[in-house]
Design brief:
Layout lengths: L1 H13 L5 H24 L3 H6 L3 H13 L9 H6 L1 H4 L4 H8 L8 H10 L4 H14 L5 H18 L5 H8 L7 H12 L6 H17 L5 H8 L6 H13 L6 H5 L1
């Protein structure tokens, strides 16, 4: 750049390391020259590369969310990332709804998934996120719907909000699953973090009954998390006992004590 060509002679003349002070000047000016040269190199990058850099965090978080819930999340294009940068850059899901308004109802499913997984920070965000899912659910494919529901249940459990759980479980049980063993067990593990509620306990029993019909095994960690949680009731304990017998597993003393 012109700026760097002008400063380079200054670096050579004034930064000769003849003394401690000149050595310090040399270091400062050399760092400045490196910074300018780096900026010059960046300016030569293709526009497509520069456009993708601000959104690399979004694509990375989407991949992380996919691995968390056992699904491959679609990677949006650079054009899509640019179109929805205000929503993905919002402080929280409520702010994203204010910024985008009704336009958010037409957003591609990855936007909803991202907001669910990354922008629910307070209890006030939870119901806004659930409402967004219910309004955009019909536009997603079955795999994306599974992602939305699992993430909904996860954020509800993190904020200890139980009201929408029965409806979300009802939707989940109608969906085809790519990884039924992983996804059923994840659902129950997320639910096990919720506070005591007869509705949530009944929903957990419905999940266990469906798993039994489909022959989906229950992981030991899921046994423990359900039995150790306050939502457990007599019906749920009986169902877990049946699953333990069917799964050729017996509860240990810690589980029985829970």
């Amino acid at each position: 750049s012109t700026c760097y060509r002008l400063i380079r002679p200054c670096i050579r003349v004034f930064a000769s390391p003849r003394s401690a002070s000149s050595a310090l000047v040399h270091k400062v000016l050399a760092n400045a020259g490196d910074a300018i040269e780096q900026n010059e190199n960046i300016s030569k990058c293709p526009a497509s590369v520069l456009a993708s850099r601000p959104f690399s965090n979004v694509t990375r978080r989407l991949r992380d969310l996919g691995s968390t819930i056992g699904l491959e999340c679609d990677t949006p294009s650079e054009v899509e990332l640019g179109q929805w940068k205000d929503a993905t850059g919002a402080k929280n899901v409520r702010k994203a709804i204010v910024i985008e308004g009704d336009r958010l109802l037409d957003a591609p499913p990855w936007v909803t998934i991202y907001l669910l997984g990354c922008k629910v920070r307070e209890p006030q965000d939870v119901m806004a996120a659930v409402n967004l899912v219910l309004h955009t659910y019909h536009k997603a494919n079955p795999s994306q719907r599974v992602s939305m529901i699992l993430l909904c249940v996860r954020v509800l459990s993190q904020q200890n909000v139980t009201l929408p759980i029965p409806r979300l479980v009802e939707l989940f049980l109608t969906l085809p699953l790519d990884e039924p063993e992983t996804q059923f067990n994840l659902l129950l593990q997320f639910m096990s973090r919720l506070r005591s509620s007869s509705e949530v306990a009944k929903a957990a029993v419905d999940v266990l009954q469906t798993m039994e019909k489909l022959g989906v095994p229950l992981h030991p960690r899921t046994y423990t998390s359900l039995l150790s949680n306050s939502l457990v009731n007599l019906e749920l304990v009986k169902k877990l006992e049946q699953r333990m017998v069917l799964g050729y597993a017996q509860p240990d003393l810690e589980q029985l004590a829970a």
